[in-house]
Design goal:
single chain, about 425 residues, alpha/beta, Aspartate Aminotransferase, domain 1, Aspartate Aminotransferase, domain 2, 2 domains, eight-stranded mixed beta sheet, about 40% helix
Length: about 425
Amino acid sequence: MRQKLLSEGANELTYEIREIVKKARLLEDEGVSIIWENIGDPVNKHNQIPGWMKEIVQELVGENDSYGYCDSKGVPETREFLAQINNEIGGAQITPEDILFFNGLGDAISTVYHLLEPTARVIGPSPAYSTHSSAEAAHANHHPITYTLDPENNWYPDVDDLYNKVKYNPNIVGILIINPDNPTGMVYPREILDRIMEIAKEFNLFLISDEIYHRITYNGAEACALAEVIDDVPGIAMRGISKELPWPGSRCGWMEYYNRDSDEEFSRLCKALDDAKMIEVCSTTLPQKAIPKILGDPRYAEYRDQLNQEIGKRSEFIADTLHAVPELTFNKTYGAFYNTIVFKEGTLTPDQHLEIDNPKVQALVDEWTQDVSLDSRFVYYLLAATGICVVPISSFCSDLYGFRITLLEEDEELFQHTFTTMRDAIRTYLDS
């Protein structure tokens, strides 16, 4: 080409959660049966959508306007419904005009970072959720800036680390919170959220809170919404239905703007987001129309509570099972449906392995394990030897070595088989 086409930031657009699927598919071609623990899709893990929910969607499919464009910002009745839910908690108050729909939160995330000045940085947690960290780094043409989540302290944010990084980097304009957190399953305590708010106030920052898992909490925890603690700080909450209903294939998420008029620059960002959606025309109509009917149905709360209890039980089983390996740093989870397990320092070495009978599979693993992180090496051996597909935690913008699992498998026999097999494989790998 007569000119360079790609920006340097394009190199930051990586997504190991999906990339490992390519390797797993190659192993399937060689006869390896794969157990997919790499991605948070409840439907893929045998979640049964209740009949009453399907009936609501089926009725909407019969309505002619479900096939047309809706308002650019989203279906007015749905935005009214969501604004009312937010306002009932008694924190930051919003109107339907403070809500903007997107085709999934991936769309929302990329749009936010795309509109920011390249020098304007948003600091996020590490381990990081790849969609956020990749999009932020791509817009800046630089590696992500992160604050530490501490595995030795329940995966809570190291607020001192966050404060110092904000203080000494004037390019930081915003702080990202993921609550409940992906990939750790941590839920932010109120006192930590309050401290983050104070940092934002002191340095005149805005906040982004990814709350896609807001209603998915268990083991006695409840997530505190950004609206409850934000006071007069400008901020954006990101919500959706892909995980909570669950309806991941709907690709339906939205932003809620808080204190939009408290800062001129933040107000300009919100307007730019609205304008970007107007150019696109609108987000998909059908799932938006379903939101008030499903979330407003009295059966929904009971349904969600039951799912949360089941996830909590699985978290207990995983804790009991993997605690048997002392070389692991393990935290019980309280929200979302993931857990990040870390190998203690010095535990992994470059010559550990698992036995693989198929020479073609062994050849693939030999190829994949050249010049990779130690946790990636473990993940590829685990995949080839057992078929269990997990994601190395070093791919989540982290210096730690470990892996992320899900707590979603609803086939109890398969679920228990997966994690007892994983435990035994870890023991064998470490002893090899």
